[in-house]
Amino acid sequence: MIPQVQESDYLYSTPKSFSTRAIHTGQHAEQIHGSVNVPIHLSTTYKQKAPGQPYSSFDYTRCGNPTRAALEECIADLEHSNHCITFSSGCAAMSCIINICKHGEQIICCDDVYGGTQRYMRNFTVKNHGIEVLFVDITDPENVAKAVTEKTKLIWIETPTNPTLKIVDIAAVCKIAKEKNILSVVDNTFATPYLQTPRDLGADITVNSGTKYMGGHSDVVFGSLTCNDKELYDRLFFSAKSQGGCPSVFDCYLIMRSLKTLELRVRQATKNAYIFAKYLESNPLVEKVIYPGLPSHPQHELVKRQQRGGGAMISFYVKGGFEETSKLLKALKIFTLAESLGGVESLIEVPSVMTHGSVPADVRNQLGITDNLVRVSIGIENVEDLINDMEDALKASH
Ligand SMILES: *Cc1c(COP(=O)(O)O)cnc(C)c1O
């Protein structure tokens, strides 16, 4: 009953020396006692030798901190970028970027974007700051070319999207952006730098909610952005330090610790997800499976070109309606019924009444977010146990 697979089925390539970089970049043995791990520097302020002469580059922790600096160097390396800024949440990273746009300018954003991003843009960027936002289906790059005007300053890409796992051709969209001198941003939360490095595909800025796979244990809320251009970094840093959404030093320590196992976790979760998606496709009580790593995904060729694997998020339609779906989720024993994703434990949810409940019903239907659509974040448990749990619950629900 458990589908047999080979590594090349679910991983198309691997980034060079990923774990070596995750374990060592920015993380040198400390100089006084030789402690192997980067210390947690709690001091908010730094003594100066004379006015205007600090001991090193740090003067006040909102603007810079040694523990955070070590983590930022590491994340920048993993995203193949020169610079990184970290935040108290993915949303703080997102608003820091959007807030470099000015009154009267325009943003193009993918229509299937993370709910919090859409909420910030609709309620603050548009209403309070006078910046126009066009929500466009950019899975067809032609739609981007059509929407661009001389006011367009930023294109916001998220791929794979949530919960319908559509794929945006990053290279094609960033090429259009570059030609028109427009900044391109990719939300890389679902794929992680292990499976996708947007900068290699032409993106100016990559943003991550570290709350998900980077943290990986559902116990830290965290965000980051990376970029390569120094002048752009200076603008973003000015925005970040002015708005003040810096992360706690404890959280930086936890993220640094989690990054050391990111490769192991993402590989295992991706393998589990591929096997699990194949199992779901073979189950007659499942109407349809959406998983970027399966040949049945309409953009599977693009996935293989742009990502190193299909990731660990799966969406599927249960045969029947909300009643069967609800019964199924209540009958599961190993999957936890909860929002969020990217942790070592498998989570399951119904987007229409949970993560995407605030999306208007007509927009939900248009995007395919119906009451029998289920989203799973596959963890690193034994996949046979996950399949058996789902098999029993599907039987009990129909
Ligand atoms: C969770 C999430 C965010 C927001 O991150 P927070 O850390 O919750 O603020 C942004 N984008 C995507 C794709 C997410 O899944």
TrEMBL record:
PROSITE patterns: CYS_MET_METAB_PP. Its EC number is 4.4.1.1. Its cofactor is pyridoxal 5'-phosphate. It comes from the Eukaryota. Keywords: Amino-acid biosynthesis, Cysteine biosynthesis, Pyridoxal phosphate. It is an enzyme of class 4 (lyase). Belongs to the trans-sulfuration enzymes family. This is cystathionine gamma-lyase. InterPro entries: Cys/Met-Metab_PyrdxlP-dep_enz (IPR000277), Cys_met_metab_PP (IPR054542). PANTHER family: CYSTATHIONINE GAMMA-LYASE (PTHR11808:SF15), TRANS-SULFURATION ENZYME FAMILY MEMBER (PTHR11808). GO terms for biological process: cysteine biosynthetic process via cystathionine; transsulfuration. One of its GO terms (molecular function) is pyridoxal phosphate binding. GO terms for cellular component: cytoplasm. Pathway: Amino-acid biosynthesis; L-cysteine biosynthesis; L-cysteine from L-homocysteine and L-serine: step 2/2. It comes from Paramecium octaurelia.
